[in-house]
């Protein structure tokens, strides 16, 4: 089904990914540090014990400086892992400084599947979510795989707070919305925190 909004979504994805990838290494490094500073002053993050994050690919905001600081604060960090038997779904596994990472079929590094390292969504306090673009209403456009749309479906019942992470250049005026899209209550960029509830 290729409605105009689907095509628009593809175009926005391409434009924003291009902007994101055009950033220099210096700009990326500075953005990552600024974001880590902002995140550590964000009350829900300070209060959180179990935090789901992601490792950046394709010009996404580099989360590694933030992860290192969270480890330093003795917070538990979890990374998404593609569910082995439930296609399109994510599991979250504990990520420590000594966790080996292996690329999954999408070439994204993930921890090895180990049931002892697994956390349920109900046990998470905060989930930092990747996105390609967001608008001023908190709508999020992802890569198109729907992994996070499925994960975020019932975030209120699970009791964790989802927060989008993005470069400033990833903000657009408004996004075409699909019925499966889950708007975010907050998005953080290196220069600002956006909150909608």
Automatic annotation (TrEMBL):
<feature type="binding site">
    <location>
        <begin position="140"/>
        <end position="148"/>
    </location>
    <ligand>
        <name>ATP</name>
    </ligand>
</feature>
<dbReference type="GO" id="GO:0009396">
    <property type="term" value="P:folic acid-containing compound biosynthetic process"/>
</dbReference>
<dbReference type="InterPro" id="IPR037171">
    <property type="entry name" value="NagB/RpiA_transferase-like"/>
</dbReference>
<dbReference type="GO" id="GO:0035999">
    <property type="term" value="P:tetrahydrofolate interconversion"/>
</dbReference>
<protein>
    <recommendedName>
        <fullName>5-formyltetrahydrofolate cyclo-ligase</fullName>
        <ecNumber>6.3.3.2</ecNumber>
    </recommendedName>
</protein>
<dbReference type="InterPro" id="IPR024185">
    <property type="entry name" value="FTHF_cligase-like_sf"/>
</dbReference>
<feature type="binding site">
    <location>
        <position position="60"/>
    </location>
    <ligand>
        <name>substrate</name>
    </ligand>
</feature>
<dbReference type="Pfam" id="PF01812">
    <property type="entry name" value="5-FTHF_cyc-lig"/>
</dbReference>
<keyword id="KW-0460">Magnesium</keyword>
<keyword id="KW-0547">Nucleotide-binding</keyword>
<dbReference type="GO" id="GO:0030272">
    <property type="term" value="F:5-formyltetrahydrofolate cyclo-ligase activity"/>
</dbReference>
<feature type="binding site">
    <location>
        <position position="55"/>
    </location>
    <ligand>
        <name>substrate</name>
    </ligand>
</feature>
<dbReference type="GO" id="GO:0005524">
    <property type="term" value="F:ATP binding"/>
</dbReference>
<feature type="binding site">
    <location>
        <begin position="9"/>
        <end position="13"/>
    </location>
    <ligand>
        <name>ATP</name>
    </ligand>
</feature>
<keyword id="KW-0436">Ligase</keyword>
<keyword id="KW-0479">Metal-binding</keyword>
<dbReference type="GO" id="GO:0046872">
    <property type="term" value="F:metal ion binding"/>
</dbReference>
<comment type="similarity">
    <text>Belongs to the 5-formyltetrahydrofolate cyclo-ligase family.</text>
</comment>
<keyword id="KW-0067">ATP-binding</keyword>
<dbReference type="InterPro" id="IPR002698">
    <property type="entry name" value="FTHF_cligase"/>
</dbReference>
